[in-house]
Amino acid sequence: PTMAEPDDLYTLRAQFWLGHYDMALDEARSIARRPMSQSLKDEREELVVRCYLAKGDVDRAAAETEGSASPGMKALNITAKQTLNPSPANLDALKTVLADPASSNASPTLSLTAAHTFLAAGKTRDALECVSIGTTMEQMALTLQIYLRIDRIDLAKEQLSAMRTVDEDAILSQLCAAYVDVANGSSTAADAIHHLNTLQEQYGASLMLLNCAAVAHLTAGNYSEAEDSLAEAVAEFNGGEDADTLVNTVVCYQHLGRAAGDIDPLLNTLRAKFGAHPFVEGLKRVEGALERESIKYKVDAISA
After folding, report:
1. Which of 199, 196, 242 is nearest to 220 (CA)?
2. What's the whole-model pTM score?
3. Neighbours of 269 (CB within 10 A)
4. pLDDT confidence of residue 293
5. Residue 299: its pLDDT value, please?
6. What is the DSSP string of 116-166?
7. Which of 165, 117, 124, 178 is nearest to 147 (CA)?
């Protein structure tokens, strides 16, 4: 099938992209015995492992992919190991799989997984090289997100046009339109909110969609609506254990002028559970700089 043509994995992919990981796993089980091509069977297995990784079930992802011969599964195994124990050796192993001639006709999972892993390690250029010439909608979408990360909104808009040419109504086209509208600022944030509301009405809310909606509302200056989205994320999807929900709630509370008594517990949870998160590392840098500066102005008490 072409990219825009539905196939047996259409619903599974949709659930995965929208952050409905448990529903995606249910869908994968329900279609397991359906006759389909080998490439679709392989992609189904890869999506199952990607759901485990997204849910934080990293040990299971590592176990399910151990010793696998397929390039996509090898990449997922390396990603699981990198998540459990970050090391440059894992990134080198990933580059070896990418360079292997046997990977030339690998599923898109290889390039996508490698790109996500390089991004998490701060290697944006390597990530972009993995997906920038990709022709699947997911490769195009990840390329667009990398362009936004490096503040090239002009390239992201070109990429969105290319995606819309392939399939304007595709879930990833709608999601990426929302990302571009948020990155563009308050003038287009309302368009992002519309795209995200449409997706939630069609497919139901998820932790990811509620966080996207919160960010769009924050960008538009709708702080109480952002708070509502985040409260739903906490109540319905255990968002109190999720780094993105915690970070977005901290930002939202600051805009709402909330007291330190509301914000400090969130920061303490972030520091305790997500020490390697970029937001927490940024906090440490700022607090360290403040500490160093304050020492300069320290006045010792004079004893009589």
Report:
1. 196
2. 0.91
3. 15
4. 81
5. 67
6. HHHHHTT-HHHHHHHHTT--SHHHHHHHHHHHHHTT-HHHHHHHHHHHHHH
7. 124
Question: Hey, what amino acid is at 196?
Answer: L
Q: What is the mean pLDDT of each run of 10 residues along the chain (304 residues)?
A: 66 97 97 92 96 96 95 97 95 96 89 96 96 95 98 98 96 97 97 96 97 98 98 96 96 96 95 91 87 76 61
CA atoms of 268 and 198, how far apart (whole Å): 35
pLDDT value of position 104: 83
DSSP the chain: --TTS--TTHHHHHHHHTT-HHHHHHHHHHTTTS---HHHHHHHHHHHHHHHHHHT-HHHHHHHHTT--SHHHHHHHHHHHHHHS--HHHHHHHHHHHH-GGGTT--HHHHHHHHHHHHHTT-HHHHHHHHTT--SHHHHHHHHHHHHHTT-HHHHHHHHHHHHHHHTTSHHHHHHHHHHHHHH-HHHHHHHHHHHHHHHHHH---HHHHHHHHHHHHHHT-HHHHHHHHHHHHHHH-GGG-HHHHHHHHHHHHHHT--HHHHHHHHHHHHHH-TTSHHHHHHHHHHHHHHHHHHHT--PPPP-
- To 5 degrees, how large is the angle CA 174–CA 175–CA 178? 90
> Using only C-alpha atoms, what is the Rg of the chain?
21
Q: Measuring CA to CA, which residue among 67, 69, 32 is closest to residue 48? A: 32
Q: What pLDDT is stored for residue 300 in this prediction? A: 66
